[in-house]
Write the structure tokens for this entry.
Amino acid sequence: ARNLRDGAGPLHLQELEHGSLRDGDGSIGMERLTSLHQDIEEQANFIDDVFDIRVHWPIDKCNCHYDNGAANFSARHGEPQMETPFPAWILANGDDLQFVVFFLGLAIFGVLERVLPRRSVDMNRRRRWTTNGLVTALNVAALGFLPISFIAAAAWAAQQKIGLFNLMHVPSWVVVAGTLAVRAFISFGTHLLNHKLPWLWRIHRVHHLDTEVDISTTVRMHPLEFFVNPFIGVPIVLLFGLSPWVLAFYELLDVGVTLFSHSNLRLAAAVDRVLRYLIVTPDLHRVHHSVFKPETDSNYGAVFPIWDLIFGTFRAKPRDGHERMRLGLEELRSPDADRLITLLLSPLHKTLGKSQRDFDRVPRHATATTRTFSQ
């Protein structure tokens, strides 16, 4: 009320006590004005808490004049002003942006991996891409049926004031960095469990049955994986009270980086040597798709390799080199590995064929993770 002005100066609270606010349709008494003010503040506080946006409603921009103890509005209210519009923008457009980045990335990396291929072997594109395209289409459709997302869980936690970051008063950069680190850990930990727990491996191995790795492998996953993984990640999101808009930003990074890391793209050795410690590169992730079990059980990170470095699962180079290494799984290397029905029924079978991975012997030069740091 102290910010309501006319041409003469401020309209004080005392002058409103017996007056009314008029907007052309009727009058709004002081009690109603107070109620409206409280509603606006509650909404602004909710937006601030959930999305980390500072909202100001410039009431002083209303076109008002004072007349016989009443303030008459000409109904030209100011628009909400946001000091940090990016969080609102990424939350409002995140889903659409993921589709844009995905299909744009498919086109860009699809061309680049043809122009600068890392492996010049026969990629069996016709057979593989047909199956991988069908699996990708199924997964895109499955996304519409997910019961909950990390972002929705984080927004609920912010509203309920639960979770570490929602209870602590820390600088915004701490929340941003912490959310990115914890979200990266969720990807790392979930991926690790997918390899270590037999019932999860039956679902996840669909991704590893691809006998080559290129952009079509990116979303070659069993649809059940999208429904199982949130049960692992959502409790962690709630525990830490992760920022919704930072999670939306991470999901966008995840789409772009995973397309990049699955591409059959050759990077300059000097570039990869530095970049692989910042984000997951194609050479780094290709090691994870090796048939050699110690290499399959490495490089679990999806966007950032930080947790692989911390837990000692980082492996910079494959034993047999990128040109000669075998990709996929030894248990199934026939054309059945690219049959849609085989992939969809994978969770029902303990093994899909005779596995030789456990008979692999780890060479001495490949056993120490610390040696990969210098390679």
Notes: The beta strands are 21-22, 27-28, 55-56, 64-67, 70-73, 81-82. Residues 85-115 form the longest helix (31 residues). The mean pLDDT is 80.
